[in-house]
Amino acid sequence: MITKRRTAGFIAVAAAAALLLAGCSTAGSSTKASDAASASTPQKGGTVRILQNADFSYLDPARGFDGGVNAFYRLIYRGLTMQTAGDAKDPNEIVPDLAESLGKPSDDGLTWTYTLKDDIFFDDGTPITSAEVKFGISRAWDPQIGIGSPYLRQVIDAPADYKGPYESGDMPTIETPDAKTIVFHLKAPFPEFDNVLAQPNAVPFPKGSGAGDSFINDIIASGPYTLAEYTPGSSIKLERNKYWKPETDDVRKAYPDNWEVVIGLDGATIDERMIADQGADANAIAGTISAATLPRLQTPQLKDRVLTAPAFCTTYMSMNTTKDVFKNVKVRDAVNIAMDRKAVVNASGGSQLADVATTIIPPSVSGHKDFNLWADESGDPEKAKELLAEAGYPDGIEFTMDIRSQPKMQAQAEAVQDSLKKAGITVKLNVIDTSVYYETIGTPSQQHDAAITGWCPDWASSASTFIPPLFDGTQIYEKGNSNLAQLNDPEINARIVEIKAMTDTAAAATAWGELDQQILKLSPIAPLAWEKGVFLPGSNIAGFVPSTSMTDYSIVGLKDASKG
Residue 467's domain spans which residues? Predict the structure, then answer.
């Protein structure tokens, strides 16, 4: 067990460990609910617990980038901007955080200027200045640790050979003319730059800290909580950061005195504990309820606690277009045509927990276009066989698919395996520990032929954070790669650039939907399911507004703090 003891000036190191609770990537819109757990006003004090299967992917935000850990980051880190509270009228709005206001772009859109608030500090009492913000952001370019959110690297005009502050030193394209002012130079105009700075890796760190693997067992907090204890694979305990000033933070309410993350529980155990609602579990929250447990939630005493959230993420199977087996588009089309998506939905928990996905962008995300290129949701193995024969594979194909070591994900993989077998397609499963799954498949040298994963919008339920990270061929990285299909099509790349530059958001949304269809005609992925969520918070929980992409922990607390 690692216990935090910090004095002023102590340069801390941050924790890394490993899991994901939601999709491959990030945060997105929250969902409103009228039930008691979301409508009640929390009290100050007590301890809120999070019950989960495995460790977070990384506590270092330069590395972590998934729905589970992004929600956790909101408790301990602050950036220049952030997504507003999950219970806000528009929970997708981007608002100032450490900055006094949203960014001020130049007339040509190539520079953005921010001014820091007063009275902002790290958890050792050190003031946060523009130099620390610049240093923390420049860590995203480090080849070892910069494997998290890709948007900083895609948008900021860093030198082509820049490799972060530890190898390359100061970044010349981020200026700090004084302690409160920071100026960013962009590669091209990007109207959504405020959203980029709300990403989890755009947070300050003390200059010189965090090189290599030093951020393993501790954190450097700028938010309302800091690390009290960390037992890898078992628990994380947070306590209040006494240097956080609530008057500088309009979003985070920080109701509990403490947070405790209980790690290593299997899904059935979590469900049983949430149903029983005994002792400290009345003060607990968890991920979505499993399909096997759903029928038990119909009792009157449980129905009042049930909360639901629509799907903001797409579960899909990527096909690595650089591998011999998937270089021919007819082969990839055959996989999509043979896919029994209804079987994958059943493996995901049935229609209460998932819908068949036929597009990249889900219906709840701006830019969705309703189409289905493959018609039969149960698959057409005979037609798939014909396409394979045309591609030169009359006896079928064989490929290896990476999957996570979680029961639901393995059930989804087996549904894919069974449906493709009918078309003469043999799928071998390569099971990877959940804690390192995204790092592994995001490293092209370690990637196999295919992988099952998911993607959520990174801001404002916008398709601009769906299509570019997954299919821009100019943004394929040696580590932290999200273009798992490694699609590098010049026409697609050029269209992405054009749509990203659009200032008419409605026109851009329509264009993203059309590009979704254009991309799927190349079959780089097989959309599988849009997974919904059913949640059962403890009876003493208040302010809980669940989301299938990122639940906002920063507004959660207890109805009665004396019971926590």
Answer: 314-531
